[in-house]
Each structure stands twice: as C-alpha cells, then as structure tokens.
Amino acid sequence: MSTTFTIDTATSRANPTPAPMKRLTVPAIRKRKGGEPLVMLTAYTVRMAQLLDPQCDILLVGDSLGQVIYGLPSTLPVTLDMMCAHGAAVVRGSYHSVVVIDMPFGSYEASPQAAFASAARIMAETGAAAVKLEGGVAMAPTVAFLSERGVPVMGHVGLTPQAVNALGGYGARGRSEAEHAKILADARAIADAGAFAIVAEGILEPLARTITAEVACPVIGIGASAQCDGQVLVTEDMLGLFERTPRFVKTFEDMAGRISAAVETYARDVRSRTFPGVDQTYLPKD
Ligand code: KIV
C-alpha cells in the first residue's frame, strides 16, 4: 500500500501547484463554528483533488465512491482497501484542504478498539488528517476513544447511508417528533464525545437549525438547509455527471453534456481521419 503522501512532479500529468498554501488543520476547521461557512466537497482521485483543493476547506473521500466510482448499489460493499487507495490519491493531489476519509461499513461499529485499528490504518496509509463515521448515541464511546487517541473524528447524523437497510431508504429524516428528538440526541452525543465537526444529511430545516445552534462543533449540511456552518456535496452530482440526483443537489455545470459533446466530436474526427492531424503526428526530421 502506498505511503507516499506527496505527488511526484516528474511523473504527474498535471502542473505542480503554482503557489502552495499551507494546509488547514483540524483545530482551524473547528474554530470556524459560526464563522465563514465551511466549503467541503467529495474527492476520490488525484486530479479531482487538485482541481477542487484551492477552493475548499475540506475534501471528503466519501464512501459514496462505492456508487460514484465503482457502480455499486450502495456504500455497504466499500472496503478499507478502497478507502486507503483513494484517500492516498486525494492527499497527494491536495495541499490546502483538510482531507477526511470515510470509515467504511463494518470497519468501526464492532468496538472502539476495532475502530481505532481501522482509523490508524487509514491515517498511516493515506496521510489524511481525520476520519468520518456514521451514527450517533451508539457511536459516542467510539468517537471519544478515537479522539482521545489522536484520531480527529467527523460525525455524520440524520440520513446515514450505511444504515439504509435499517432506515428503509434515502428519504429525508426528522419528520416525526420522535425522529427529530433522536437525531438531535445523536448530534449532541457525538459532539460531546469530541467530534471536531458533524455532517448532517437529509434533515428538515428546523432540525438543522437546532443542531447547529446547540452543538459546539461546526455542522456541515448536505440536504440540511443553509442554516448549517458549512455545506458538502458529492462533486460528481454538483458537476452534473449523473441523470438522477437527490432534490438537495444543485447542479453547477453540465459536465455529462460537455463530455458527451467532446466524445461525439472525437468519434467523428477519428472516423473521418481528421484526427490525428499534423500537430499530433511524429514525422521524420529533415
Ligand atoms: O460518502 C459521502 O460522500 C458522504 C457525503 C455525502 C457527506 O458521506
């Protein structure tokens, strides 16, 4: 497994970063509570990390890579091997953002000790600064165990995709009073246990507002209204690469359309023998 955390500029296909900024730290993210909103996006590959990094505070190597990169039906089959390989690539492609890596399903739930072993592997193999795990009250002892041992933890409450089978789907959470109270208790529990930030996914605005007001750490929303301390989206969703996205996604670009148009032109040029042209052809020197 790779232990190289910096990019090899001799072999990289991209230009070296022109003016590297200092990498943000977990305490700096924590201090942003109530301040300028935190900007977070998912990244799974080195080139995407390079492109996103200058604008972002946090790059999340989400286990959503199961669906986005591997075409899996959910995040459940994602492995530690996958997270470590993609995590290391994103660390190599970034110099400014805090890189947070999702702990995959099955790698942390059994015990705080099991969670520590998985988190230690992720951090040692990728060079990332923090991990993210899903769950609330039940995961609070694990969040405390990791945080007290030098592993910064980002929590994730509300719609927790690894629990899709228990939740029965990907719909918004917190509609009933009981669910509202449970999600609030979850957020409080992991914040009190030492989480440095919490992702709140797919929850109603009043609940997002209450959680954000009540917990000490920044709350980063995804489908959780503008009331949070920051926002995160799956990058491929906001770039318009997929036909179907959740209601909370705003597509900022039509990348699928642009790629299709470019490939159509390429195919036409190949078939008409207009590509490759003289500029792309090695000719004998005179
Ligand atoms: O896996 C992921 O990409 C996530 C975000 C959607 C928050 O957890």
TrEMBL record:
Binding site for Mg(2+): D63, D102, E134
Catalytic activity: (6R)-5,10-methylene-5,6,7,8-tetrahydrofolate + 3-methyl-2-oxobutanoate + H2O = 2-dehydropantoate + (6S)-5,6,7,8-tetrahydrofolate
SUPFAM superfamilies membership: Phosphoenolpyruvate/pyruvate domain (SSF51621)
Note on how the cofactor is bound: Binds 1 Mg(2+) ion per subunit.
Annotated keywords: Cytoplasm, Magnesium, Metal-binding, Methyltransferase, Pantothenate biosynthesis, Transferase
Pathway(s) per entry: Cofactor biosynthesis; (R)-pantothenate biosynthesis; (R)-pantoate from 3-methyl-2-oxobutanoate: step 1/2
Localization (cell): Cytoplasm
Cofactor(s) the protein needs: Mg(2+)
Residues annotated as catalytic: E201 (proton acceptor)
This protein's GO CC annotations: cytoplasm
GO molecular function, one term: magnesium ion binding
Binding sites annotated in the UniProt record for 3-methyl-2-oxobutanoate: D63, S64, D102, K132
Superkingdom of source: Bacteria
GO biological process: methylation; pantothenate biosynthetic process
Quaternary assembly: Homodecamer; pentamer of dimers.
Job description of the protein: Catalyzes the reversible reaction in which hydroxymethyl group from 5,10-methylenetetrahydrofolate is transferred onto alpha-ketoisovalerate to form ketopantoate.
PANTHER family recorded: 3-METHYL-2-OXOBUTANOATE HYDROXYMETHYLTRANSFERASE
Name of the featured protein: 3-methyl-2-oxobutanoate hydroxymethyltransferase
Species assigned in the record: Sphingomonas populi
